[in-house]
Design goal:
Blueprint lengths: L4 H13 L3 H14 L4 H13 L7 H10 L4 H13 L3 H6 L1
Helix pairs in contact: 1-2, 1-3, 2-3, 3-4, 3-5, 4-5
């Protein structure tokens, strides 16, 4: 698994679901270092930051996702959720 971005990605997803967020973040970071141009991996980095309670960190990887794949709907949905939690309702609605 050491050089397979997809394996680190899916392991991070599993760890997030299990509530093992620090480990999930480490796996997401490994996946990102192996494939920084992947929209799904950039999305994962943002999701993991959000699960960790970081309400400022997720927007950067999601914006990078949009640079790579502007219509990547999953990231738009998560960004809308983040804006809603931050009480940025106009931005949430725009997403």
């Amino acid at each position: 698994m050491q050089n397979t971005p997809s394996a680190h990605h899916w392991y991070s997803v599993l760890l997030n679901w299990e509530g093992r967020v620090p480990e999930a973040y480490a796996e997401a970071d490994r996946a990102y270092r192996l494939d920084p141009g992947s929209p799904i991996i950039n999305n994962l980095v943002g999701v993991t930051r959000m699960y960790a309670g970081d309400l400022d960190g997720p927007s950067k990887p999601w914006r990078k996702t949009f640079e790579i794949a502007p219509d990547f709907g999953v990231s738009h949905g998560y960004l809308a959720d983040l804006y809603a939690v931050q009480r940025k309702y106009a931005e949430a609605e725009a997403e």
